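stage 2 :: seqdesign
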């Protein structure tokens, strides 16, 4: 389980607690830290002491928004066969890990949904440190009906047909890096995330599209275990400098239908190190 973060300790602590509360404890947590200060390291150390599963901390220097690079670094120290990606502002319901384990099958990667919590509820929950990720699905559904989050029907365990699961098998659109799982050997095969993406945006779309170009099908799960995204401002000052470049770079990938490797990858998986 790889959790990306940057200098939001209150949110990270809640996310790590939601992972500690998983029903399935056969996994590891790697915090992919894109240059946070010592406060983040202290939170991780605190959660390591109470966690029943290993928590590792991969840190890189803060010289801009380099999510692809920090994720690759975390992949390099991962030991599991399946790697699930989420963000340090997304809390997870107790069956999140087990749901991804159940959905995994050879020849595919799995994408899930994201539910946005509204500002008022996020502030209320964070102030009181509510373990809302453990609330019954019916309560979370009612929270949505009350206007405190979007996509309330994602909390209902509605049956999903096989046709629905594979409806987007060759489509990169609307896949989010905060809820993606893939086999480690497939991630290694495509060279991980493309580190030419710096600044916010499209590095996850690039990853998904290169998976598809490589021949790995996308399996999209609904009504199962969405991530619970804490509200925050969308602006991250001085860390979006390459957003325009990212769009042009990704458009080039769309026209290169056969390419699945990054143009310039510095990704070195752990089994390939000396």
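stage 2 :: out
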């Amino acid at each position: 389980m790889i959790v990306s973060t940057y200098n939001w300790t209150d949110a990270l602590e809640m996310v790590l607690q939601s992972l500690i509360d998983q029903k399935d404890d056969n996994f590891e947590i790697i915090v992919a830290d894109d240059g946070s200060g010592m406060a983040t390291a202290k939170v991780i150390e605190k959660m390591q002491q109470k966690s029943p599963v290993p928590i590792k901390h991969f840190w890189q220097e803060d010289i801009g928004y380099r999510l692809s690079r920090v994720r690759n670094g975390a992949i390099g120290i991962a030991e599991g066969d399946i790697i699930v990606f989420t963000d340090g502002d997304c809390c997870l319901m107790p069956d999140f890990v087990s749901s991804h384990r159940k959905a995994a099958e050879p020849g595919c990667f799995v994408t899930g949904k994201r539910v946005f919590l509204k500002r008022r509820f996020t502030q209320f929950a964070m102030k009181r440190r509510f373990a809302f990720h453990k609330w019954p699905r019916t309560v979370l559904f009612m929270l949505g009906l009350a206007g405190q989050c979007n996509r309330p029907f994602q909390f209902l365990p509605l049956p999903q047909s096989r046709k629905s699961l594979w409806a987007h098998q060759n489509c990169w659109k609307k896949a989010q890096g905060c809820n993606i799982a893939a086999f480690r050997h497939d991630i290694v095969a495509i060279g991980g995330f493309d580190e030419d993406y710096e600044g916010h945006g499209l590095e996850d779309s690039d990853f998904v599209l290169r998976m598809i170009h490589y021949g790995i099908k996308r399996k999209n799960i609904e009504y199962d275990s969405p991530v619970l995204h804490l509200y925050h401002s969308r602006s991250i000052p001085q860390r979006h400098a390459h957003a325009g470049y990212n769009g042009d770079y990704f458009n080039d990938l769309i026209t290169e239908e056969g390419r699945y490797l990054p143009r310039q990858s510095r990704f070195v998986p752990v089994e390939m190190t000396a």
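stage 3 :: structure notes
- The radius of gyration is 18 Å.
- The chain is about 35% helix and 15% strand.
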